[in-house]
Amino acid sequence: MTNSTPERSDLGFTYRRRKNGDVEVLHHGRVASTLRGTDAVDFMLEVEAADESDAQHVMARITGNYKRGNERLASQHPRNRR
Fold first, then answer.
1. Domain span at residue 43?
2. Confidence check: pLDDT of 79 > 80
3. Beta-strand (E) ranges in 1-82?
């Protein structure tokens, strides 16, 4: 018997925007990274355009909490080619 519920990619990340424009990325409620200036603006644009699963991966990439064995595949993704 298979599970019919879709798999959710919740890695425990959230973010909050501060009044001064900074963005804090939280992992399980604790501040993992703070973005300022153009980094904060770019982050907000990317997260607002993404669905929840992609947003979780964006936040993991920002905080450096993404190295889980798929680095070779992730480096080939168009979003990561800069």
1. 13-77
2. no
3. 13-17, 23-27, 30-35
Task: For the chain, give the percent of residues with pLDDT over 70.
Answer: 72
Q: What is d(CA 43, CA 23) in angstroms, rounded to the nearest whole number?
A: 8
pLDDT of residue 44: 95
Tokens of 41: 């603006």
Task: Please check whether residue 55 lies inside any domain of the structure.
Answer: yes
Which residue pairs, CB below 8 angstroms and at least 24 apart, start in 78-81?
none
How is residue 22 annotated by DSSP? -
Q: What share of the chain is helix, strand, coil (3-state, %, to 5)?
A: 40, 20, 40
Is 6 a member of any domain?
no
Count of domains forming the chain: 1
Q: Residue 40 in 3-state DSSP?
A: helix
Most confidently predicted of 34-38, 49-53, 73-77, 78-82: 34-38
